[in-house]
């Protein structure tokens, strides 16, 4: 088991956003979290990456308790997040943004190899290498955010809404790339509004409602679950 | 008012202004770095400079260059300056670091509102200044002239001395070094990342506390270097020396666009030149009035300073 959340609760001030969430991610999996706006999907991601302290419960990663570990140290352990809203550094070039992804690493030849890998996955980024991150289109920024998250060579890749704001064709493309990244050996935990895509690409998934996990199963099971269909897939 | 005097001596006033402005610019870097990353005006930075001026006299005295000492050889001068830059840079950097640890970090850990930081900054400034005043009995401390100004060449009728050249050149050199470090190195990229988006910087593995320590040390070291140039130029320091220089440097940073390294340089040089013109027109006693009037006028037309912010660009 690569990642395990046990009974994790988290609050923003007095507003409790997660009420005792438990979930696991095994090595090699793509696991999706789906749910409506405000269900706690992004909050769960923030708990895993360490951006928000948890109120109670525990998080373990790769055999180590990381519940109280600082976010920057989790990166060194192998957790990498492409954040909600992409979080591109606007005053840095595409290349510099990617270099930021490799901030914790020192081995230059290995970093260059991963740069080539990211440019291979997203040829568009290679074309825009010198352009400033802030002037890129939404789709390009999304590619950059995913590519940047890969640059730390993570064991676990957290993707927060990778399809947000993208044209349908680009959505297909980015999910194809997520599957490819997974097949190259990176475990993926994915938050998505686009439940159709997420469930058809993920090995397993959890459904969140108002800070609680209400359902779990394989992607295929949930894809055919009438209640899930009703609530999240937009088809009866 | 004496416009004819200014017109006749424009080149000379410009050279003196650039010399004074170089020192403002170096001190301004400390304000700009800290503001760019923390959105905080580190008012204690003026005392970081003051500590540097005293460290310089102490290290010179320790090396046998005290009051009454004979003028050293050229090599000796370079050696004394180098020793002073290292010592004052270290002392000022350390002072800045202590201020961060004692006055700001505890507040940061408790998520204090910005106003509290401001009060703490002013408190740290007064505490350091008064401590230095108590230790020195509020007596100014003089030092022998290290460099006797010698005219090197004339440009547009203005004599340029070795001292002026040395100060301007040293300041530019320090600035280039800092700018290159921030824009080209891995750690510098980390500084810019925290300035632009601290949360995402953490997701990249950047340790924010370490970045904050780094910018205080860098800003402090720049103020230390500036303090050596000041000592060489003025030959006298006192516990309250940081006050006016600090305010001027802060003004320079705002003038150029606070949070912008190039702005600090431009603002410093410009402020030095303009206040010298002002002194020429209205008389020396009006120098500081002119400096601050210029600030107000520039901010009326360009509220973000001449160059705007760059370190934390596009952070709302």
UniProtKB/TrEMBL annotation, chain A:
Any one GO molecular-function label of the UniProt entry: ATP hydrolysis activity
Pfam families assigned to the protein according to its UniProt record, in alphabetical order: ABC_tran (PF00005)
Residue ranges constituting the ABC transporter domain according to the UniProt record: 3-235
Entry-linked InterPro entries: AAA+_ATPase, ABC_branched_ATPase_LivF/BraG, ABC_transporter-like_ATP-bd, ABC_transporter-like_CS, BCAA_Transport_ATP-bd_LivF, P-loop_NTPase
The entry's keywords: Amino-acid transport, ATP-binding, Nucleotide-binding, Transport
Keyword Transport: yes
Superkingdom assignment: Bacteria
One GO term of the biological process aspect: L-amino acid transport
PROSITE patterns (UniProt xref): ABC_TRANSPORTER_1 (PS00211), ABC_TRANSPORTER_2 (PS50893)
SMART domains referenced in this protein's UniProt entry, alphabetically: AAA (SM00382)
Family: Belongs to the ABC transporter superfamily.
Protein's recorded name: ABC transporter ATP-binding protein
Organism classification: Bacteria, Bacillati, Actinomycetota, Actinomycetes, Micromonosporales
Automatic annotation (TrEMBL), chain B:
Superkingdom of this protein's organism: Bacteria
Record-annotated membrane-spanning stretches: 23-41, 48-71, 77-103, 115-135, 155-178, 211-230, 236-256, 263-283, 289-307
CDD domains: TM_PBP1_LivH_like (cd06582)
Record bears the keyword Transport: yes
Gene Ontology cellular component list: plasma membrane
InterPro entries linked: ABC_transp_permease, BCAA_transport_permease
One GO term of the biological process aspect: D-alanine transmembrane transport
Coiled coil: none
Keyword entries, A-Z: Amino-acid transport, Cell inner membrane, Cell membrane, Membrane, Transmembrane, Transmembrane helix, Transport
Compartments where found: Cell membrane
Bilayer topology: Multi-pass membrane protein
GO terms for MF: L-isoleucine transmembrane transporter activity; L-leucine transmembrane transporter activity; L-phenylalanine transmembrane transporter activity; L-valine transmembrane transporter activity
One Pfam match: BPD_transp_2
Family stated for the protein in its record: Belongs to the binding-protein-dependent transport system permease family. LivHM subfamily.
Name of the protein in its database record: Branched-chain amino acid ABC transporter permease
Organism: Paractinoplanes ferrugineus
Highest classification ranks of the organism: Bacteria, Bacillati, Actinomycetota, Actinomycetes, Micromonosporales
